[in-house]
Write a structure and sequence with these properties.
Order of helices and strands of chain A: HHH
Radius of gyration of chain B: 17 Å
Shape of chain B: globular
Helix content of chain B: 55-70%
Largest interface: A-B, 16 and 23 residues
Oligomer: heterodimer
Helix content of chain A: over 70%
Number of strands of chain B: 0
Largest sheet of chain B: none
Structural class of chain A: mainly alpha
Structural class of chain B: mainly alpha
Largest sheet of chain A: none
Distance between the termini of chain B: 27 Å
Strand content of chain A: under 5%
Distance between the termini of chain A: 46 Å
């Protein structure tokens, strides 16, 4: 089972790489598609920020420390 | 063969040695000591200095996290929308979530400009791509 794990992570990384390439703005994109890309990028940015380990730990320490 | 995990690269940790980050951490610690250990009251500092220092400290740590854990490299900088979003997130947590969870926190909307000022300081002084030779 462990032998399959690196393969799965490689597949996942390849998918993410393709998604990242697709998200890049292309002058030939239709307006609706560029709006979808912008919304997806904003959502990704929001998720990365809200679940950032450093921010969560920093704010939790602030809450505990200042309580 | 497993690839070695290169997390700690001194070049990517450079923001942690920036004078602004070191000064902010020192001021934060000094204020905590004067307030909690020495019980000295400096009203303006007690009200706003923690808010002002929170954003440059947290955003610098976020930048280092992205450069090391996410392996974005030492050229990576946080974009303006990311800095604004992080500032809003920190302000919302500090002024809405914390007071809702504990009575020891009091919401004060005058803190928000201080969070924003701290972010401006971070953006102007710390958030820079490292283009020095390897």
């Amino acid at each position: 089972m462990n032998e399959n794990l690196p393969k799965f992570s490689e597949v996942l990384a390849a998918h993410f790489k393709r998604l990242k390439e697709w998200l890049k703005p292309d002058p030939g994109d239709h307006l609706a598609l560029s709006i979808v890309k912008t919304v997806l990028k904003s959502a990704a940015m929001l998720v990365l920020l809200l679940f950032s380990p450093v921010l969560l730990v920093g704010l939790a320490l602030g809450f505990i420390g200042l309580m | 063969m497993k690839r070695p995990l290169k997390i700690l690269n001194a070049k990517e940790l450079k923001p942690l040695y920036s004078p602004v980050f070191v000064t902010c951490c020192t001021l934060f610690l000094a204020h905590q000591i004067t307030q909690r250990v020495l019980h000295l009251s400096i009203p303006f500092a007690d009200n706003y200095i923690d808010n002002f220092l929170a954003t440059p400290i947290l955003l610098t740590l976020l930048l280092v996290e992205r450069r090391t854990l996410f392996r974005y490299g030492r050229d990576y900088t946080l974009s303006m929308p990311e800095v604004c979003l992080a500032t809003v997130f920190i302000a919302v947590v500090g002024e809405i979530l914390f007071p809702a969870l504990s009575e020891k926190f009091t919401p004060d909307w005058l803190d928000v400009p201080f969070y924003a000022l701290g972010s401006v300081l971070f953006y102007a002084a710390v958030n820079k791509a490292d283009r020095s030779p390897l």
